[in-house]
Each structure stands twice: as structure tokens, then as C-alpha cells.
Write a structure and sequence with these properties.
InterPro entries: Pec_lyase, Pectin_lyas_fold, Pectin_lyase_fold/virulence, PEL. By secondary structure, this protein is mainly β. It has 3 helices and 51 strands. The longest helix is centred in the middle third of the chain and has 14 residues.
Length: 612
């Protein structure tokens, strides 16, 4: 099947870079509390390719369910009621669809989470189109507890996208995207937490954390609207031009709203009728907003029983770094089950390491990550415990990925890591710090001693290890290209059909794994068939057509990066199996060399391109 799309997207100008290959970040927030959330871990693993099997395993409970690519349409009045101890994880291209009902009050909900200990990841849930008929949602957590919803894309829910209702508790919703398309004509109200003032039984429940989510085009209200619950809204992105209000504090709501980015929206924080319990607002970034952005709030809101790092968005540069990371990775962007690659973002608090070669084989490095936490300092002795298959003492060649591993942090508020080679970073998420990445092809050869140190405890502790970097072999060296510091860094906003576009270098037939450093860093390259990705005309002066072949249908992220490894534009499109084409328009992007990345639907491709 051949698919052609013209992309018209809001221009993005990134101010920091993102890791394109990194391990899945562990959960944080309310889902980690009161026993935690493990889903179907340790249970039987099954793979499904039809809605009947998906329903059978999900409702029975006690399974890890991998969902193959395809569209799974759930009939109206027949929601999939997800039971206990379940993980649902989608391949790229797995879409669960809502059936439209024109009947008022008919429940056409798709996924209804009623069980305890449930994880939903890497799924697209497509609604039938929002209309005001009091129909069903795409998803709700209805009475379920210990639920983690991560990297999902939910849009066009007929009544809502994703609600947390009827006594649900200990819920974390992270790295997810909520939006509406032209299929929605009314009632673009995305997320309720608590669905009635009269449900006083919700008091003391509805504990929900929402972090690194994106409320995008078409979302008008309920991002979320909260009743009763202790709800933590942290490090999210709100940039829907249609927003009449974003976070609404309704009856008895107890809210912490911190470190969020609000751009071009009305009423970032809506105090509504003033009958909330408490609203604490701190450290949010606002730009071109109207209405209340936190004034009138107070510090009497709940204090989380978990520790969670909050990314600083106090400046435009920091806010845009978080914005770009969320726009790039929110939604169903995780790798397929069993894939060695991942597409989860590095913490924007990470800084690139800088290395210098000593006279011996020992190499010095000054990499570190900043930490912050919403919890106060912890008294007593801290502890670090290593997990993961990667060793704390390992050897890796230039340009190769290390075997990742992580440390859990106990009795402390965070941690720092120093001494890593270029390309390897520490990612702090809650009380876990992950060491991962690919050693830069230009990293100095030698032994790097890294040290992880807790912060925020009265007695902090450290643990160390070594990563020994060896020279790449001649084949690897010949198939890599270093980005020189003199490469042009574009200052223009671009839109893949709007401003930036990339031009395929006529002499390049390589596919490139993109790098993620603001510092000069190499991009490792592998030869692939020319037909996998092409651009015509090869040099964009006005408009060119990008063609790529997808192995299966799914969402594809098309990203333009400048020669410093900084994303200057990113947009998502739906690709069908087979050849797809996308029209790219230059508009105002500056001339220079760029890298065009296509990821998703089984693809991980990049090409060096030029604009002239």
C-alpha cells in the first residue's frame, strides 16, 4: 500500500538534545506506593492478534499480553474489563479502536481497568470522535488500583480520553499524549479524575500522578479536572491552541501542580468554584497564556509519600528542552517487545560529559546529572542497590552501546553520577538512576571510573565502577562520521512541511543512528538499501518528497536534527505497511546540513540531508 501525506506541523526549536536509544524509565509516582505495581511480571506471556484473544486474557488476569500491530475494534457496550495482575504492551502499530454510537448515554468504552496491579504501555487508543452524547471514554480506570499507564496515545474519545473514577487509587499516568482531530466536533474534554461531587466515597482515594504527558491539539478542557483526589501534576506539556482551561481544581480537589510547561493556553490552573481542598503551584513555565496561572494557590496541599525528581523549567531554554523531549517521546514510542532499541527520553537534567585523556590509560570525565525532588531531605544513612544485566565493570568499543543497568536509591532524595565517557549518561527518574547510552565514536580510549552518589540524606553514600573504552575496529571506524564543531547550528524554527526541511545528500546512502548530545559527537552509520529511505529532489530548495518503506503499520516519528545533534523539528504521522511518502517544505529554514530521522513502525532510519 502506498500512502502519501503532507505534514503541516507547529515549528519546534529545541534547545537541548535527546537520547534516542535509552532504557525504559522505571515508574514513579503514586503507582509505586502501598505495595507498588508490577502488572503481569512473572506471569504467563502471550501474544495476541485479535480482539477476542485480547479480551479473554485481559479479563481473566494474570498475563503479560503483547499486542501485535493492527487495529482492534471493540464493539459498543462491550468494553474490555482489564482484571488483576495484567500487563498490556503493544508492538508499534497496535491500535485499539472505539466504535461510534449515535445513541445518548450508550457506553462504548474501550478499555475499562477494574483490576488491581495493571500496566498498560505502548498502545494507541483511537476514539470514534468527541460528541456531547454522554457516551463512553477511550479508557477509564474504574475502581482499579495500582495502575501504571505509560507511553500511550489516546485521542478522539467520544466522551473523554482517559478518566480515573469510582474509587480508583494509586495510579500513575506518564509519557502519554492526549489530543483530538477533526473527527471531534464537540466535548473535547480529555481527562476526569473523579466524576461526581456526590461520590463522597472517592474521598481518600483517586491518588494519581500525571507526569511527562502532552495535551496537544484539539484538547479544550479537563487536563485533568479533579475532584477529591490527591493528584500530582508534574513536568507535563500543555500547548493546545483550543484550550479553554487546563488543570481544573473542582470539588475537594487536592492538587500539586509543579514544573509544567504551559504555552499558548487559557487558564493554566482553573480554580473553578473555589471549593477545592488545596492547590499548590510551583515552578511552572507560562508563555502567551491568559487567565489564572497559579495565583491564589497555597502550600497546604498534600505531600507525596514518594520521592520524584522535578525537572527545572524556570527559564525558556529549560522549558523548551522539556517541551521538545515530551513532544518527541510522549505516546506509543517504546520499542517492540524483545527489541534491543528503545526510544525513551533522557532526563532533561542530564548534562553531557566532557572527557580528557590523561597520560596513562585512565581517562577523566566530568559528566554529572543534576537532581531535584519534591520531598524534603531525608534523615539517616542512604543506600544504593544495583540492578540490571549490565555490569558496573565493563569494556566497550567506541561507538558501541554499554549494557545498561540502574541503581535504586533508598533513604535519599536523589543522586548524581560523575565520570562517564561521552555518550553515556545517568538518567534520574524518581528513586532510580539508570546508566545507559552508546559511547561516542570520538570518545577517548581508556578507563573511566564513574561514581554514583546519593543526595539529600544526612549520610550520603557512593558506589563506583569502571567503563573501559577501546578503539573501534577499522570497519567500524570507516562507517562512522564525526560531527565537527563547525557544523552549522540552525537558529530557525522548522516544520516538516513548514520550515526546516532536510535535504538528502546525493552522495550519502547511509542510514544513521542519531546522536543526542549538544556537544560535538559522532553519528554511527550503517549501509542499507537505498529503497528504504529516499528524498526527491535530493536538495530541498522549496519542496521535496520523503519516501520510506514500513514493515507494518504504525505511528512514525519524523525528526529533523541539526549537525549538533539537536532536534529542530519533530512530527508524528501514521504509516501503512509498504511505501509511504511525506511532502517536506523548506520555508524559512537556514541553509546547511541536517539529519532526517524516521522511527517507528519497525523503522530506525536517518539520512544526512541538506537545505539550500
Amino acid at each position: 500500500m502506498r500512502t502519501k501525506q503532507a505534514i503541516f506541523a507547529t515549528a519546534l526549536l529545541a534547545t537541548s538534545a535527546f537520547a534516542v536509544t535509552a532504557p525504559d524509565l522505571p515508574m514513579t509516582g503514586w503507582a509505586t506506593q502501598n505495595g507498588g505495581t508490577t502488572g503481569g511480571a512473572g506471569k504467563t506471556t502471550v501474544t495476541v492478534s485479535n480482539v477476542d484473544d485480547l479480551r479473554a486474557y485481559a479479563e481473566k488476569g494474570g498475563y503479560t499480553i503483547y499486542v501485535k500491530p493492527g487495529t482492534y475494534t471493540v464493539p459498543s457496550k462491550s468494553a474490555i474489563n482489564v482484571g488483576d495482575n495484567v500487563t498490556i504492551y503493544g508492538y508499534q502499530g497496535a491500535i485499539i479502536a472505539q466504535t461510534y454510537t449515535g445513541t445518548k448515554n450508550e457506553d462504548n468504552t474501550v478499555l475499562n481497568i477494574v483490576g488491581d496491579n495493571v500496566i498498560i504501555r505502548n498502545i494507541v487508543v483511537k476514539g470514534a470522535g468527541a460528541v456531547d452524547k454522554d457516551a463512553g471514554d477511550c479508557m477509564h480506570v474504574q475502581g482499579g488500583s495500582h495502575v501504571w499507564i505509560d507511553h500511550v496515545e489516546v485521542y478522539d474519545g467520544e466522551d473523554g480520553n482517559l478518566d480515573v473514577i469510582n474509587g480508583a487509587n494509586y495510579v500513575t499516568i506518564s509519557w502519554s499524549k492526549f489530543h483530538y482531530t477533526s473527527a471531534s466536533s464537540n466535548h473535547q474534554f480529555s481527562n476526569l479524575i473523579g466524576n461526581s461531587d456526590s461520590k463522597t466515597t472517592d474521598s481518600g482515594k483517586l491518588k494519581t500522578t500525571m507526569h511527562h504527558n502532552w495535551w496537544a491539539d484539539g484538547a479544550k478542557e479537563r487536563m485533568p479536572r479533579v475532584r477529591f483526589g490527591e493528584v500530582h501534576v508534574a513536568n507535563n506539556l500543555f500547548d493546545s491552541d483550543d484550550a479553554s482551561h487546563c488543570v481544573r481544581a473542582a470539588y475537594k480537589a487536592n492538587l500539586r501542580v509543579e514544573g509544567n510547561v504551559f504555552i499558548g493556553v487559557n487558564k493554566p490552573i482553573d480554580l473553578y468554584d473555589g471549593d477545592y481542598t488545596a492547590v499548590y503551584s510551583n515552578g511552572n513555565y507560562t508563555e502567551n497564556t491568559s487567565g489564572n496561572s497559579g495565583s491564589g494557590t497555597n502550600s497546604n496541599a498534600f505531600t507525596p509519600t514518594y520521592s520524584m525528581s522535578i525537572t527545572d523549567v524556570s527559564t525558556k531554554a529549560k522549558a523548551y528542552a522539556l517541551r521538545d523531549s515530551i513532544q518527541l517521546y510522549a505516546g506509543a514510542t517504546l520499542p517492540d517487545p524483545g527489541s534491543s532499541g528503545t526510544v525513551t527520553p533522557a532526563s532533561s537534567s542530564a548534562t553531557e560529559s566532557s572527557s580528557s585523556v590523561a597520560s596513562s590509560s585512565s581517562v577523566k570525565s566530568s559528566s554529572s546529572i543534576a537532581t531535584s525532588s519534591s520531598s524534603a531531605a531525608v534523615s539517616g544513612a542512604a543506600a544504593l542497590t544495583k540492578h540490571g544485566s549490565g555490569s558496573a565493570t565493563q569494556t566497550v568499543a567506541q561507538g558501541e552501546a554499554i549494557a545498561s543497568f540502574y541503581y535504586t536509591i533508598e533513604n535519599a532524595t536523589g543522586a548524581t553520577v560523575t565520570g562517564l565517557p561521552d555518550g553515556v549518561a545517568g538518567t534520574l527518574d524518581g528513586l532510580n538512576i539508570t546508566i545507559s547510552g552508546s559511547v561516542s565514536a570520538t570518545a577517548a580510549v581508556g578507563t573511566y571510573k564513574f561514581t554514583v552518589t546519593t543526595t539529600g540524606a544526612t549520610a550520603n553514600v557512593s558506589k563506583s565502577g569502571t567503563i573501559t573504552v577501546t578503539a573501534a575496529n577499522s570497519t567500524a571506524s570507516s562507517s562512522s562520521v564525526a560531527l565537527s564543531s563547525s557544523s552549522e547550528k540552525s537558529s530557525s524554527s522548522v516544520a516538516i512541511s513548514s520550515s526546516s526541511e532536510t535535504v538528502l545528500s546525493s552522495s550519502s546512502e547511509e542510514v544513521v543512528e542519531s546522536s543526542s548530545s549538544e556537544a560535538t559527537e559522532a553519528i554511527s552509520m550503517v549501509n542499507v538499501a537505498k529503497t528504504q529511505m529516499s528524498l526527491s529532489p535530493a536538495v530541498i530548495s522549496s519542496t521535496s518528497t520523503l519516501r520510506f518503506t514500513a514493515a507494518h503499520p504504525g505511528m512514525v516519528r519524523v525528526t529533523l536534527m541539526n549537525a549538533m545533534g539537536i532536534a529542530v523539528q519533530s512530527v508524528r504521522v501514521y504509516a501503512n505497511a509498504g511505501e509511504n511518502s511525506v511532502n517536506l517544505s523548506r520555508r524559512s529554514i537556514a541553509s546547511g546540513t541536517y539529519y532526517l530521522n524516521v522511527r517507528g513502525a519497525g523503522l530506525s532510519l536517518s539520512r544526512r540531508v541538506k537545505v539550500d
